[in-house]
Amino acid sequence: MSHTAHIRSHRKPRRSASTIAMRAGVAGGVLSTLAAAGASGAANAAEPVTQTLELPTLTADMSAQVAESAAATQQAAANYQLQAERDAAAAKAAKQAKADLAEAKQKAEAKKKAAQEAARKAAAERASRSAERATLSASVSASTSTSTSTATGSAADIVSFVQAQVGDAYVLGSSGPSSWDCSGLVQAAFKQVGIDLPRVSQDQSTAGTQVSLDNLLPGDILYWGSAGSAYHVAVYIGDGKFVGAQNPSTGVAEKSLSYDPPTGAVRVL
To answer: What topology does CATH give the domain 146-267?
Structure first.
């Protein structure tokens, strides 16, 4: 035996063929696995990815909130509708008020014009009456110069009677002997000569023949107002004068024709 036989050798032992083959197989399997994984990853990368979202479940609280929101929206719509109706009504009322104001102004203007026209006509009528009265007074004044101033016969009796009553009181409806109204005095005067006249002035104004005021004679009946609707009567006594029961303040009085010009006259004698 060699003296070095008991010393271990420092050289590495040779690997067996089976061991090498096994390691080679393992390495190959690993490489194959990596290759397959890479291919699979590449294939997956080429395919589109579809993502599915899951909606939340509608709970009772959410339902209440949705209902409240819908109710609030409906109420807001109703409020808008109501406001729109109010605005429309206000606009209509304003338009109507404007139209009413314009109509009122037109009516007021028409009334004003009518009042002015009525005032103008009244003034014209007053002026016309004044002119007629002035003409009548002039006519009466002219007639006094041509009228017979001295009464004779029955006319003298009538004149004497009415002159004798001057100063008596005026009492409506009275026929003497110490108070008279206008037609009562005239009726009593003509009764002195046997002539029965109607009682009221309206009828006495048509009891005889109508005569003009510029051709009066003593004993003629003067009247004021229209024939048939006279409101006052008296007796013409000549010289442009008459006697009549005028009113409560004057009683029976003798007056000039110009004091109150009569409208017309009738002759009974």
So the answer is: endopeptidase fold (from Nostoc punctiforme) (3.90.1720)
